[in-house]
Amino acid sequence: MARPKSKRRIYARLSCTYFKPQGISKNNGEVILANDEVEALRLKYVKGFNQYESADKMGISQSTFQRILSAANVKVANALLSGQGIKLGD
Fold this sequence. Notes:
Elements: E1 18-19, E2 30-33, H1 35-46, H2 51-58, H3 62-82, E3 85-88
Parallel strand pairs: 2-3
Antiparallel strand pairs: 1-3
Helix pairs in contact: 1-2, 1-3, 2-3
């Protein structure tokens, strides 16, 4: 049985929730970033916090933060390289 997901603190307030390549229809597919993935990207790359600081702000362990951040990076890279849209938040 899987361990229950711990509650994460999310502070990001998004003014835009969808990105897609110009000239590409939504039929090309989309990648959905969960709220915790968006927050991990924001804390690490926008705010410039290290993984320990970011994990503390989200109320999770550093290893959990690393897994969330890695999953978000893979999703964004796949979307960019395959011309898919990116939906922010679940």
